[in-house]
Amino acid sequence: MVVVVIVLAVVAVAAVAALIVTRSRLATQRLAADEAARRADAAAEEFRRRQSDLAAAGAALDDANAQLETARTDAAAATTRAERAEESARVAGERGGVDPEVLWTLERARSERTWRFSVAPGPDSMSELRQADSGETAAVLIEALRIELEAAREEVGTVVELDADVPAGVTTAGAVLALRAAQELLADVVRRSESTTLRVRANGADLDVAVESVDDEGEPVTAAPLPLPASPSIETIAGGVRLRGAIATDGAVPPADGDLDHTVEILYPTVVEAEVEVEPEVEPEAEPQPQPEQG
Fold first, then answer.
1. Mind listing the pLDDT tens digit for each residue in 261-287?
2. E-assigned strand segments in the chain
3. CA 72, CA 70: separation in Å to the nearest integer?
């Protein structure tokens, strides 16, 4: 009987030991499985991060390619403009160039003629252009612009405002271009507008010439772009042009006559004025021609 009890005790001890070993192995396997799962999750996260980095790198590469293409396009356009400017300079050099002083003198003569035929109140009146002719180029330019505005009464009835801020350092070539540009812009809009503002204002070393117009219903009237060739000295802006380098930068100078803001109201003649009889000018009698002596 004792032997049976001893055998049963030994079997029980062995079973307990086997159970303990089995539990230990299961715990170890569970820890290994948890570690494997953790490593798998870390590997998946690393894979997703690398995929995100790769996508960002692809987007950056596409953006860099787009910027490179834009830079190539801009470089090609700049090269074309430089070639055109170089060709224009070469042609001007071959022609010996044009003296701006000559053109300015001719423009002043044309403005004086416009004053006499369209603006002057009487045959003996002296234009302010002639009075300013011995002064600065800026002052002469402003008076020439005023004549252009006032001369419109012979063709249209409208309200025209001159907003001029022209520094005394404006060059002769800049004055010629400013006056001619103003003439063309006004010719385009005054017949289509009820009110027009001509703005001639300094922009650093440049001079902006533009018009702002509205019709009789208050709607804006857009000026057509001037038909200009490619040139480094002029560019199109909203409502007009910008004259590059039209103002000498050797020393700052104040605007001519301050910030000039002239408003000229040009109206159709009234019925009473239209019915007023204008006395015809009496031509002077011709002096009698001397008769040849009879031999």
1. 333 333 433 333 433 344 444 444 545
2. 158-165, 195-203, 206-214, 220-221, 234-237, 240-243, 260-266
3. 5
In whole angstroms, what is the distance from residue 174 CA to residue 244 CA? 8
For residues 157 and 120, the answer to whether their CB atoms sit within 8 Å is: no
Contact between 176 and 145 (Cβ < 8 Å): no
User: What would you report as the CA-atom Rg of the chain, rounded to the nearest whole angstrom?
Assistant: 45
- Cα–Cα nearest to 141, from 117, 107, 113, 115: 107
* Cβ atoms 169, 255 nearer than 8 A: no
Tell how far CA 258 is from the center of its chain: 25
Rounded Cα gap, residues 263 and 164, in angstroms: 11
Q: Identity (one letter) of the amino acid at 265?
A: E
Q: Which residues pair with 214 in a beta bridge?
A: 195, 220
Tell me the CA end-to-end span of the chain in Å, nearest whole number: 199
Strands, E, within 38-181: which ranges?
158-165
Indicate yes or no: pTM above 0.70.
no
Count of residues in the chain:
295
In the prediction, which pLDDT does 216 show?
86
Interval 102-157: pLDDT, tens? 899 899 889 888 888 888 877 777 777 776 665 688 889 999 999 998 887 677 77
Q: How far is 40 from 269, CA to CA, in rounded Å? A: 95
The residue among 146, 101, 98 whose CA lies nearest residue 265 is 146
CB 159 within 8 A of CB 265: yes
pLDDT value at residue 272: 34
Distance CA 84, CA 98 (A): 19
Question: Confidence class of residue 8 from pLDDT cuts 50, 70 and 90?
Answer: confident
Quote the CA–CA distance of 212 and 273 in Å, as a whole number. 31
The dihedrals phi and psi of 262, each to the nearest 5 degrees, come to -100, 135
